[in-house]
Amino acid sequence: YEVDSQWLYSKIAEDGLEAFAGFDGAYTLVWYDSSTPGKMYIARDHKGQRGLFFGYSAKKDAMFGCSEVGMLAWLAERNELA
After folding, report:
1. Which neighbouring-strand residues pair with 41?
2. What is the pTM (predicted TM-score) of this model?
3. pLDDT digits (tens, 9 = 90+) for 25-38
């Protein structure tokens, strides 16, 4: 895998929520599973080492989130969500 998040998401795809038993370290994850339409999943490490920030764009009817508030602002600007 090129980045750790690729590995994390592949484990979730393979093992479902049971994958989290094998995760250690700091993470905040947000994902959509096409097998459960209308649901968005959010996970944060049990030690709370990563933040969890969300934004909503009424302009594009979109919700977005990440572990760093600066990244949230960058995502909103990059995708013209503001």
Report:
1. 31
2. 0.65
3. 888 888 888 889 99
